[in-house]
Design a protein that fits this description.
Elements (H helix, E strand, L loop, with lengths): L1 E7 L2 E6 L8 H15 L2 E7 L7 H14 L3 E7 L3 H9 L7 E5 L4 H9 L1
Parallel strand pairs: 2-3, 3-4, 4-5
Antiparallel strand pairs: 1-2
Protein name: SpoIIAA-like protein
Organism: Gillisia mitskevichiae
Length: 117
């Protein structure tokens, strides 16, 4: 299940409570593109709930999506306990212009504060 919330008009919040696999990544992108068309530039808070995983091929698709839309995404906070995904997000800044910061789930409030600035 994907839950969405707004911290403000330009901040999109996503909480993903299922494994991210090839078939369901488009749902997430659709939500983001909808907000981009509405607000222009946005910030994204994305939390992957504990116990859920991300397929590696989805990470490649996500990199492509971020590259294509990086001029419309100012900040991207990824909150997850997946160590490998946080490490991958640390190198994203080499590919896209978006300010991307990974956070552990225990640091969720810090991520919300940063994304809302």
């Amino acid at each position: 299940m994907i839950s969405t919330f707004e911290l403000s008009n330009h901040v999109v919040g996503l909480i993903i409570d299922k494994d991210i696999e090839e078939g369901n990544l488009e749902d997430i992108h659709e939500i983001i593109l909808e907000r981009i068309s509405e607000f222009g530039k946005i910030n994204i808070f994305c939390e992957i709930a504990k116990g859920h995983d991300v397929a590696f091929l989805c990470l490649i698709d996500e990199l492509k999506f971020k590259y294509e839309n990086s001029s419309n995404i100012n900040k991207f906070a990824i909150v997850t306990d997946l160590t490998w995904l946080r490490a991958a997000m640390n190198i994203n800044h080499l590919i896209v212009h978006t300010d991307i910061r990974p956070f552990e789930i225990k640091d969720r409030m810090q991520a919300i504060q940063w994304i809302s600035e």
